[in-house]
Each structure stands twice: as structure tokens, then as C-alpha cells.
Queue: 3 jobs
Job 1
Amino acid sequence: FLGRQRELVEIGEKLKAARPPFTLTLHGIGGTGKTALLRAALERFAWRFPAGVLAVPLEPLPDYASLLGQLEQFSGLPDDPTLTQAARTARLLDRLDSQRILLALDNFESLNHAREGNDPEKAEQAADLHDFFSQLPARGVALLVTSREPTGLPGEQRLSVAGLQDEFGARLFLGLVASRSGDLSPEQAMAISRAV
């Protein structure tokens, strides 16, 4: 994974030492590679979580019932249409209790923005999701999150994700445009990397 070895090592060390409540937020401005780093970390460290790893994108914001269904299926709970949403939540939290699960949440700032937004329905939906996610770390579910801002989740530690160093940015750029680069030199690619 180009240019992110230091961050991957740090993520691995934090996941290895994780004790409830645990939330690790890959924090940085948009376009720095937080999602790509999240994916690489999930591939590399999934073996540390014998009960499983699940990634949930938060853009667009999922509705609460859909998220519950996804997590019920993931954790092996049978569908029970007779249960209320509150009963489903309690049953799921009981199932997740003390299991070694890693839940990845991508674009958490979308949830924060919806909580603070002008749409009351979305704000309530986002508040319900935040309340649910806030209960997971104490139950032993490790959260690995990407966000442009703090999450407010229990046990949050932040790992800053900045742009790639110039040399890695240049190599990435050359690799991405290799078929179209024509006469693009490594020096020109380095200049482009510095500029962005």
C-alpha cells in the first residue's frame, strides 16, 4: 500500500492493544486517502477479529432499520418481524456483547452533519445511529472510523491522515496515468504531487 506503511503499522498496534471501549478514527481533510487506508487496514488486520469484520458506509446515511438488519444478518440473528425496533436493538446488543468484532464506519462526518442539519427527520435518524454506535465500544466491539471531524464516540483515539509525501504522490500519479502520461517525467510528476 503506497506511502501508508507507517499508518498501517500504527493502526495494527492500536488494534492489537484495543481494550473496550475502543474507537480509532482515521482523521483528516477530504481526499487524503482515509477510505483507502481503512480498506487496507481491514484486509491486513481482519484476522485479529475472529467474530468478524463489517464495513458500513455512512454516505448516504443508512436508515436505522436497515443498519439493524445488516448487523443482525452479520451476527447470525434470525429475522423476527414481531420484534419492535427497540427489542431488535436490545437483542442485537446482547448478541454483540464481548465478541471480538471490528466495525468499520466510513465518512462519519456525514452522520454528524445530518445530526446538526435542518432536516428534522434526518437529524433524528442520525441521532439514533450515533446513540447506537456509542453503545458498541463498551460491549467490546472495536470501531475503526474515517471522519473529517471528531466523532464523539466512546474511547475515541485519532490518527491523523495527511496527504502523501511528495515522492509517494508522484509515484501514485505516474501509476494512475501511465497509459496517458506520454512524456511526463518523474520530475514533472513530483511537481504535480507537491502542488496538490
Job 2
Amino acid sequence: TPLRDEQGRPHGGIAVLIDVTERKRAEEALKAAHARLTTIMQTAPVAICVAGDAQCRQMTGNDCAHELLGVAKDGNLSSTPGSSNPPAPYRVFREGREIPGEELPMQEAARTGGVISGVELELVRAGGDRTTVLCSAAPLYDSVGLVNGAVGTLLDLTERKRVEEERERLARQMAAAEERQRLFDGGPEVLRAFSR
């Protein structure tokens, strides 16, 4: 700002300089942290969802989450999107019972402020495809400690469940075959015992 004398001629000035070095460093650190977080989310072998509001009405996530839930890459992943948004293209079940939105792990974590760990759920997508997942969730907080969202992970257990069921089926077949072999190896004595 120029300083003027009584005749209005400039004879000096005032300048204010602010050192923004720390602010620039903080901005660069924030950009680097964001890039690291984005890389982690996109390379994680699990679905990761992040709700930006305490009601979990708006959720974003990594590519794995969009694929697992059957939601377009730019779509809202929330299963409780509110009345002004289209419904989610999937339903969530626990032990054969459809779970109301407020009982889902991310919504519960945001509502209670507690961490939810290892909840097994079944997702049923619009086309009828079923996927078993292991879900965990935790609340997110703002700078004054109020819950302002939640983060959740979904680990696809479908293939593991299929292998477990196949192993159990084979174990039952093996036990039945061993029983038949034992009866056969017992010869006439076992046959006489069965015929009485």
C-alpha cells in the first residue's frame, strides 16, 4: 500500500510479507499422504468402503468394492442411500435373514462409535449371484472427536466356503467307504451279525 504526503504524492509504502513455507510443506505432505492412501486402497486384495457421513448414506470405495457389490465405478456403494437416491443393487443377509440397514457393520460402527470385527454376511446381487464375505468396520472421527463416517472391509470368502463344503463332502464319502470296507473285511461274521 503506498503512503502519500499532504499533496497526494507517494513517499513510501507498506508491505506485508507472510511466510507460507510451512503451509506449502503441509499441503505437499497432505498430497503425498493422499497418494499413498489411494495406492493402498487400489492395491488391497479386499473391498474397502468409506462413508463420508455418519448415516453412511454416501460411500466410496476401491475397485474391488465396486466389483464385489456390483456397483458402477462412479456409483454410491451404500446399502442405505436414503430416499433421494436409488436403492443399492444388492441385499445383505446374516444366517439366512436379511439385515436392516441400521444393523449393517459400517452403519453400526458409525452409530455406536465401536469397532465391528469379523461378521460373516451373504451378499445377494441384483442378478441373484451370492457371495459370502467377512466384514469389519470402524468409525471415522472429525477434528473434535465426533463420528463423521465409517470405514469397512469386505473379504470374499466364497471360494474358501466352496472348498470347505467340498472337503466336508469328501470326508463323508471317505467315512462311508471306510465303513463299507470294514463290513466287507469282517467277512461272514459281520454278515451273520447283520442278518440276525
Job 3
Amino acid sequence: LVSVTGVQTSALPIPLLVQGLNETKFRESFSAVFGANTQPSAEDLADFWHLISLNRGEKLAHRLLQYIPERRKHRERWLSAMQNTKVPLRLIDGLDDPVSGKHLVKRYRELIPNADAIELEGIGHYPQVEAPGAVLAAFLDFQKKFRETAHRKIRFTGKDLHHLPASVSLAQEMAECLGRSEILFRCLSQRHSTNG
């Protein structure tokens, strides 16, 4: 299967990716996507497995992976949205991630004009778990830059919004929050805080 950026990710059908998932298989596969020096502890693995297997959730894992074929189906539309958006983007990526690490950052930089990518050396698939301080610092830096550009007016058109996936309500939120980027940021932040 091919991600939005065109990087090969897996040739296995989704049900086979999770077939027979049990705690032992989960611990092995989950640990394999972490950085060599940021491996999850036994306690972390037990906690993650508890969350996944709650109410037999491991039996539904294949349903959560529907984004994999959707990436191929919607690749051009999603890629075009990232390439043409006026909304600032930042990729924060663990370079040691075998799924979407260094190779994805390279491809992202090839495809996205003026790509803003933060590369976390020695970090795997879950940078928010492996290096939460670095992720927070990268986000806060991005947020600061985003707010510093608030004086610039960002105009969204129907053309900008139609590239977004239909399942994402962000398009409607953007349409309602037209105007200065600072106002857009506040509007989206308020919606997020009231929704969850």
C-alpha cells in the first residue's frame, strides 16, 4: 500500500495485519516501531495493551486501519490539499520510525513546497510518547510562528476546501472561521476545547 506521499508501507491486506493479534504479538510489533533507545517499558506496554484490548478492541483493529486503502484512493486529492493550502503545516517526525520515518520526511520535502518538518533523531513512530518534550517544543514553536503571521489575512475558497476528506469536519470549521489566521486559530482552538 502507498501512503499519501507515495511511500510503500505494507503489501498485506488489512485483516492480515491484525489477524490473531494477542498481547505477545502486540508487544513485539508495537516495540518494533519505537526508537532503539526509547523502547516502551513493560508497564507502558501493559497499559497500551489494556487500552487496545478493552471490550475486545483488538478484534476491531482492522476497522481502525481503513485509512490505509483510503490513502491510495484519495492520494491526489489529499496531496493537492497539502501542496496548495494556505494553512500553515508542520510535520513532526521520528526518523527511526520504520513505517513513516526518515524516508517519509524525505518524500514530504520533495512534495510539499517550503516544507516545515521537524526531524527527531533516534525517535520512532510515537514521538508524542518517546519524546513528549521535543514534540511539545516543536508544537509551541509552530504555534508561535503561526500567531506571528496573524497579521496576514488567509483567505479560503471553495477550491481550497474541496481537497479535504469528506469525513473531516475541519473544512466546515474553516469555512465558518474565515478571516485572519489568529481568529482561525482561536476559533479552532475553542471548538476543540469545547468538544473534548
